[in-house]
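S1.2 Input.
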Amino acid sequence: MRRLTLVLLLAGLGCSAAHAGVFDDDEARRQIADLRIKTEARFDQQSRAQLELSAQIQRQAEEIAQLRGLLETLMYKQETGDKRVQDFYLDLDSRLRKLEPQAQPAAAPADGADVPGDVKTAIGTDPAKESADYDAALVHFKAGRYKEAAAAFAAFVGKYPNGSLAANAQYWLGNAWYAQRNCAKAIEAQTVVTTKYAATQKAPDAWLAISTCQQEMGNPKAAKASLQTLIDKYPTAPAAETARERLKKK
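S1.3 Output.
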């Protein structure tokens, strides 16, 4: 009887151990399955986040490309507009020169005569040579060689400070500096036009150019003052009408 009891007891223990082993295996598999599901869910979430980030980067790249294209278009339009304005003034300059009377060489004074400085400068000046030098400087400007144009116009006004084309050359000297985006030099050159050559037709345009530079240099107050000075001094000049339009927008 004891033997039978012992055998039954051992058999029961074996069954319990086997059941426990099966239970442990099922629990381990369940935990592994749960871990795999959670891991896959995490990877799926990360994948979706990466896809969204990639889509955002793509959209931003497309927006940047569009903005770059717009900027290039605006820059092209500005350059084209500037070129048209330059061509217009160059053509106007040429037309006005044809209408102006040609200067004649001054007669030499008698020995011992008191000769003013401006007359001394004019004596011996060849109008044809002066015109050729001016045209040579203008060719540089038309070709977009603004550095060479600035040097040529500066040399011209130094050689013919009281010549018939001096005011024009000084004005284009300022434009040559502006074309090089050197507003400080441009204002300096145009100020000479508004002072030394204030009575010429280039003076109103010089005031307008000064105002443009002042605005670009971040000084709208000075730009506005220059426009008002232009209107006050040259109310009937074409540049004055432009100045009035600009003041309306300020």
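S1.4 Remarks. Residues 101-123 have pLDDT under 50 and may be disordered.
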